[in-house]
Design brief:
- 20% of the residues lie in helices and 23% in strands.
- By secondary structure, the chain is an alpha/beta fold.
Length: 202
Amino acid sequence: MRNNDEALIVIDVQNDFCPGGALAVAGGDEIIPRINALMQEFSVVVLTQDWHPPTHSSFAAMHAGKAPFDSVNMPYGPQTLWPSHCIWGTQGAAFHPDLHTDPADLVIRKGFREAIDSYSAFFENDRKTATGLHGYLQERGVRKVTLVGLATDFCVGFSAQDAAGLGYATTVLEGACRAIDLGGSLAAAKASTQAAGVIWLD
């Protein structure tokens, strides 16, 4: 029987993050069958979707002399620069065709503000601008969240950190995620989220 106080949050299973995409995560499509099965076990299912304007400030193409994966300082702090990806309305921004989207109760789009990136499902990268997900989960009576998706060390990790900080009992199913792992970012994400009380399971 499904528990009404638990939500599955599926992070950014989009074409651009899967093999062949603009910012592909190795094996990103391999997790989709497990995610589809997991959706049947939760009474609340939320999908997130990276959704950028073509001139988004996190794109390396918007910074002269910079390359993807360089870092720049933004008003809200350090920002990794990315290849242009998940541009709104494009096929790259669409959910992977194998992902079951019908079971979703809510789709949260993030990163649509040109001047600020958004990794977390709960807050943009200034750590203040809310996406609205917390309010929705509160209205639904959710107290526990399980996170899956792409990429483990960025959008999944930041979402888990924020979920724990907001008081949710938070679990990351690492086997239903895939990581980019830039310069040890996966180990750093695990350490910081575990310190915040996030449980990591396979």
